[in-house]
């Protein structure tokens, strides 16, 4: 049961969510700065 290394399936799921998070974060950050 020690097979908990990051699998391609895990990366497939995690990568898009990380991208969406960073895109939204940068948009909010620039909106706050331009105020």
Description:
There is one protein chain. The chain is an all-alpha fold. The chain has one domain. The protein is built from 1 helix and no strands. It has one helix at residues 8-33. The radius of gyration is 15 Å and the shape is rod-shaped. The N and C termini lie far apart (52 Å). The mean pLDDT is 77.
Helix percent reads: over 70%
Mean pLDDT: 77
Count of domains: 1
Poorly predicted parts: none
Amino- and carboxy-terminal Cα gap: 52 Å
**Biggest sheet layout:** none
Percent strand equals under 5%
Question: Which secondary structure elements does this structure contain, and how are they paired or packed?
Answer:
Elements: H1 8-33
Task: Write a brief caption for the model.
This protein is mainly α. The protein has 1 helix and no strands.
Provide the descriptors you would attach to this structure in a database record:
single chain; 35 residues; mainly alpha; 1 helix; rod-shaped
